[in-house]
Structure formats: C-alpha cells, structure tokens
Amino acid sequence: MGLKEICNKYPTDKGQMGYVPIYENLFNDLKDKPIKILEIGIKEGGSIKMWSDYFEHGEIYGFDLGWPRVGSNDYFKKIENDFPRVKTFIGDQRKRDSLLAFIKEYGGEFDIIIDDGGHSMPQQQISFGYLFPYVKTGGIYVIEDLVTSDSKKPNHGVLPDKSNTTMKMLNDYMVTKKFNSIYIYEEEKEYVNEHVLSIEVVKSTGSKLCAIKKK
What we know:
The chain is of the alpha/beta class. The protein has helices spanning 3-7, 20-27, 46-54, 73-82, 96-106, 121-131, 166-176, 186-195; strands at 36-40, 59-64, 86-90, 110-115, 135-143, 196-203, 208-214.
C-alpha cells in the first residue's frame, strides 16, 4: 500500500498539506528497511500510526508536549499497545534537558527525524541544533511547516525584522555554508556546519518543508 492510501486511514494533515508525495520521494528507498524514525508532534497519533504502517520493519518514536484533550499519557500508551513498534515520549522540544531525557531513554542513530511540533522559531531551531547529532550518517532531518517563518502569531516568535526565522537560517546557510541562529549553541553550530551534506526546501500545496541530509 502506498503512503497516500495509508495517510487516508489516519487523522493526520500530511495529505492536506501536500507532504505525502514529497515523503514518498524522500523515503522510498527506506520503506522496507529496519529504520528508526522520530517524529516531534503526536497530537492524536495519526502520523506515527501512518509511519508504523508505511515502515513495516521500522521502529517509530513520537515526542510531544502532551495534549490534555486526548488524555496525554493514557492516550499515548494506548497507541503503543495498538501499534507495538511505536514508542511515545512526553517532553518539551524547546528544552535541551527534555530532549536529552528522550535520547537517554531511546538512544540516537535515527534514519529520519521529522519536526512537526509547535512550529515556533525557538522550537524548530533548538530541536534541530540539539538532535542533528543523533541522526545517522546519511540520514534525513525534516522541518515541516516553514510558512511559520512568515507568521504574525505571537506564539511563533517571529521578530519584526524576521532576523530570527528558521527560513532565514536555512537561506543563510545555502549562501554561506554556516548556520546562524540565536537559539543554537556555538558547539551545536560547529557540528551541523561540519556534518550537513545538503538542504532542500520543497514547496507543497499547503506549506513547505526542508529536508536536511547528513554526511
């Protein structure tokens, strides 16, 4: 079954946002392999259920701040019971100690990390700077919903001059081959500068995402 058909089974906006054909192109060679994938942002669990069906031999991990409307822990544990290769973790992607706690529990060496979390500038950039070392050599780090770099919503944290946006960080790198971010520590910048192989920003029908490949 293709990713489009699987996506239609579950409550996820991946299809609506136009990400499905992008992901089929990015992940096709990994589909039948025993990969390890982390997605930040669980919500009702649609995406991690989708990945569990698509990557039939994969280990699937979900990281989320927790959603009271779905019962947080109890709801996420039910997903784990129904989908045995799925593990969930409640944490804050803006906090490095929370990201570290996740890594201590589940390890690194991820073939794929997808950030579909809160989409704010600090969330996107802190998570990338901290987690990129835990992407496997040749792996892919994806940041979804880059349209928030143009957002005027206070919770997305875009400064009036847009000097702190994730899109500016990516565009600057494509010119200078160096990451510039007020949210990423210097030692983290050194690591990503040295280990990024390529960055591709892809527009979809509903938004845009970037795929960052590791050397």
